[in-house]
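Now for a sample.
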Amino acid sequence: MAETRNIMHENVRYRADTHIMIHSNTQTDSYAPHWHTPIELLMPTENHYTAYIANKTYVVQPYDILLIAPNTIHRLEAPSSGHRYFIQADLTLLKDIYGISQILSFVGPATLFTPTGSPNIYMQLKRLYLDICSDFFKDALPLAPAGGDRAAGNANNLLEPAVYAKLMTMLSLIGQNYIESRTVNVASPGRRQDYINRFMYVCEYIDEHCTEDLSLDEIAERSGFSKFHFARLFKEFMNVSFYKYVSQKRIEMAEDMLRNPHITVTEIAMSSGFANSSAFIRMFKQINGCTPTEFRKLQDVTLELPPAAVPIQT
């Protein structure tokens, strides 16, 4: 993890009258560690591209797709030549849709989709990705002006719903593929859907009640499994332990509150379900690589990426 003082916040300037931005990028400069609130999907079309996320290196080959979850600190390294697209979209308005939060939990800080690694969905994801870029670059629309004012008049009013519809389809494919890959070892085909329904219900319940004093016994009882059977299945299904999942959801809630400078770290710790500020700070640093106070300061250091919007070539 890079030192906190070198991490920047990217201020995404969306296309006018949308919550979407796509960069068509040929730059050879690399990007220092940074984060942003929108989800990001990276696809090189010429030459590879390298991303460093949560102590893991992703070498993204042409037409692979790297999904980077919101609020994830990442560093990008460009080759000496090449081209790639960055799709950035605000998912804030979609968080209340059942399943979206769980899908983002499935993919973790980042997931790479390749023809060999995701053979069941890769071609569909690739086509949807390229369709989104095609929709975006079809009309030469302006960026939203600095300061957040929206440009009026010439925006394509159907661009945003068209793009979000395809993004939702991509997320749905990713979620379903993940579920099928995780449950194949824990349930017979006849009981698979029952297991899926139970764990989706449990995750939704945790998301809504994560600030409360949730116990393994209580959630296991809600799921209909014994305590030890539930603990094993939950970790196999979500790829993290029950208590780690609860902590991650509490940290996500805390991240939103940290954007308000008038709420103290201690108040945020209590409001997000932690027993004390020490436990909160320790878990926050374990998940994000920085303390809550450092995370708050990161928002004052802004990284501006050039739009470099050129028509897509297909």
Notes: Residues 184-298 form a domain with the Arc Repressor Mutant, subunit A fold (CATH 1.10.10.60). The CA atoms of residues 28 and 78 lie 5 Å apart.
